[in-house]
What we know:
This protein is an alpha/beta fold. Helix content is 36%, strand content 20%. It starts with a helix and ends with a helix. The model has no long low-confidence stretch (mean pLDDT 91).
Amino acid sequence: MNDLHEYFTAINPAYLNDDTPYHDMQFGNKIQIFEHHFPDISNADIVIVGMNEHRGVAYQPILNSADHVRKQLYKLFNWHEDVAISDLGNIDIGSSLADSYAAIRMVVTELVKLGKTVILLGGSHDLTHGIYTAFREMKKLVEVTVADARIDMIGESSLKAENFLMEMLTSEPNYVKHYNHIAFQSYLVHPRMLETMDKLRFDCFRVGVVKDQLEEMEPVIRNSDIFSFDISAIRHSDAPGVGLSPNGLTGEEACSLSRYAGLSPALSVAGIFGFNAADDRQDLTAMQIAQMIWYFIDGKSRSKQEAALQDRQNFNEFHTVFAEIDTVFLQSKKTGRWWMQLPDKKLIACSYNDYVHASNNEIPERWLRAQEREAF
């Protein structure tokens, strides 16, 4: 823990609360905050980490965007006292962008080894690469889910925030077991980029599909180790702190995706990036991100209720046959979530709709894509 302390700057409480005392049930009184002494995180379920590194983008934002989010988060009421939270403050920005990536890698590595769930706030979207390198350093295969209006694989761009996925998904040795992209907007993405993603057996979901079938995104996120959310995925009216597009996810849909991420038993790190407080209006985007974190915590609380898959008395079990294939579907009695069995007996996350398709003797697309990846 002493080594971790060296990477952080303490939070200035005077800036955050405007001298207004917090209610005893607000997060400002419930979160262990690094103000004067580095907190003991031994009992923490979630650790919040800020980083105001923006050299991966062209604009020059103000440098305390993470604190703007904290200011709104600490005002929210805590409904989940079964989830212990610590806020370690902001990771110091390195002398170079590579140094900042290295600092993220070191911090994430240590926190994941301690079994903590990390929420990384602030900075540009390329900080996702710093998160990934922590798992690469540990030689751990990961599933990554990104929510973004664009797919950041623009090879000709000199900006890291526009091309970091290229290195993350193609560098060797590679530890990305699977990649999901949620809520891309077609007119912002080159068609051939989607062809490339499909050839790699990665799954990409247009924003229209996500909005029409939001609950289908829960199984997509459930097996993820890393969940990275670029605020540009939210329409401008709901997140004025980013000006990429007038269209996109609503604030409520973004909160639902965050809740799904919190529900994931596999998830180690969630990052929310791309917020520029200088462009915000009446702190609306900061409020939006704070409420996304609230829903993540809500998901984390609910995930504690889930039984292990081996504990079959807590699941409804359905045997079905589709296309002459015998398989099993499980539904949790506690959370209502679904799993389906592959031919190798492995259980993967799925939805009720997958069960309906299988019951109608149709091959669920999620099952087919999983089989294609196994054969790839």
